[in-house]
């Protein structure tokens, strides 16, 4: 079976819950060993040495390590999942760069040295390992995203980031990417995820041409706009209610106004809900506002 098809089938089974739960808090020893095998195998191929030097140099700069030799240790035996994910982002980013390469055997008529891309396929290889080891993260365009459901990740987060690739929607993209990044950060960043998801929704409402300084005012502007189909009974009011609840989530659990000592920890499911709801609404606003522009 083609590996891409096998990955798609496992993703479907994962969405149904038949492969077991995802692990987010621990990068298992078998996963770390498998990842190191993938990375070290590339070091011996083509531009692998140049690529690995770049990876290790970036890690020294990013983490403040004393030398490059500790890279293998941190991949295979480090304690922090966050550090492990940062390492892999650096490796994938370095794999997108171009390096000078000379063929092993030169001839008078053969090609000399040339610039070739490192390992652009590395992201897909790592995602296959994540899926096989039930590791609850995926990489997309060099960035790690935390997932609770592959189905939601594929049908909400991805389309939302694609939908904001329009002029005037830059702030929406920035805020939503921040929300997704905080979603990965664990317990300490869930309140940041709520705040950024709320900021992304506000930015999307403004990018769609609605007026207001706060989410409640923007919701009112939306209710009276052409962005909601008035012929469908209850839809404007339903969207208004959802927006107000989004703002309440931010106010009660987010960190936009600072968190009081002893505030309850934001449940991961609540952070996931805010991000997925925000993503779905961003897609709706982007597509609906675009269709209105075409109609005009």
Model description:
This protein is mostly helical. It folds into 2 domains: 26-140; 147-295, Four Helix Bundle (Hemerythrin (Met), subunit A). Helices cover 61% and strands 5% of the residues. The chain contains 12 helices and 4 strands; from the N terminus they run H-H-H-H-H-E-E-H-E-E-H-H-H-H-H-H. Strands 1-2 form a two-stranded antiparallel ribbon. A two-stranded antiparallel ribbon has the order 3-4. A hairpin with a 2-residue loop joins strand 3 and strand 4. The longest helix has 28 residues, at 268-295. It is elongated, with a radius of gyration of 22 Å. It starts with a helix and ends with a helix. The relative contact order is 0.10. The model has no long low-confidence stretch (mean pLDDT 81).
Features:
mainly alpha; two-stranded antiparallel ribbon; single chain; 61% helix; elongated; two-stranded antiparallel sheet; Four Helix Bundle (Hemerythrin (Met), subunit A); 5% strand; 296 residues; 4 strands; 2 domains
Identify the strand order in the major beta sheet: 1-2
CATH arch. level architecture of the largest domain = Up-down Bundle
Main sheet properties: 2 strands, antiparallel
Task: Write the element-wise H/E pattern from the N-terminal end onward.
Answer: HHHHHEEHEEHHHHHH
Task: Sum up the overall morphology in one term.
Answer: elongated
Could you please say which CATH topology of the largest domain applies here? Four Helix Bundle (Hemerythrin (Met), subunit A)
CATH uppermost class of the largest domain: Mainly Alpha
Gap between N and C termini: 49 Å
- Stretches where pLDDT falls below 50 for ≥5 residues? none
Strand percent estimate: 5-15%
Number of helices: 12
Rg calc: 22 Å
* Mean pLDDT value: 81
> How many beta strands in the DSSP annotation?
4
Briefly note the structural class of the backbone.
mainly alpha
Helical residue percent band: 55-70%
């Amino acid at each position: 079976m083609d590996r891409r098809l096998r990955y798609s089938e496992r993703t479907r089974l994962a969405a149904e819950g038949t492969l077991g739960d995802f692990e987010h808090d621990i990068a298992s020893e078998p996963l770390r060993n498998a990842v190191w095998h993938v990375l070290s195998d590339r070091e011996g191929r083509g531009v692998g040495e140049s690529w690995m030097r770049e990876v290790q140099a970036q890690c020294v700069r990013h983490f403040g390590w004393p030398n490059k030799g500790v890279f293998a240790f941190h991949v295979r035996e480090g304690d922090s999942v966050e550090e492990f994910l940062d390492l892999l982002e650096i490796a994938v980013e370095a794999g997108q760069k171009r390096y000078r390469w000379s063929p092993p055997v030169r001839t008078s008529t053969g090609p000399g040295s040339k610039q070739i891309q490192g390992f652009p396929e590395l992201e897909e290889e790592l995602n296959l390992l994540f899926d096989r080891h039930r590791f609850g993260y995926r990489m997309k365009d060099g960035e790690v995203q935390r997932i609770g459901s592959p189905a939601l990740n594929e049908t909400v987060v991805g389309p939302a980031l694609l939908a904001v690739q329009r002029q005037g929607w830059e702030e929406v993209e920035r805020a939503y990417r921040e929300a997704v990044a905080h979603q990965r950060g664990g317990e300490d960043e869930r309140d940041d995820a709520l705040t950024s998801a709320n900021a992304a929704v506000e930015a999307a409402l403004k990018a769609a041409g609605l007026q207001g300084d706060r989410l409640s005012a923007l919701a009112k502007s939306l209710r009276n706009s052409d962005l909601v189909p008035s012929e469908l009974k209850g839809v404007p009011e339903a969207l208004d209610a959802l927006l107000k609840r989004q703002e309440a989530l931010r106010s009660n659990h987010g960190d936009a106004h600072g968190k009081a000592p002893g505030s309850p920890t934001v449940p991961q499911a609540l952070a996931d809900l805010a991000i997925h709801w925000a993503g779905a609404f961003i897609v709706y606003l982007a597509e609906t506002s675009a269709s209105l522009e075409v109609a005009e």
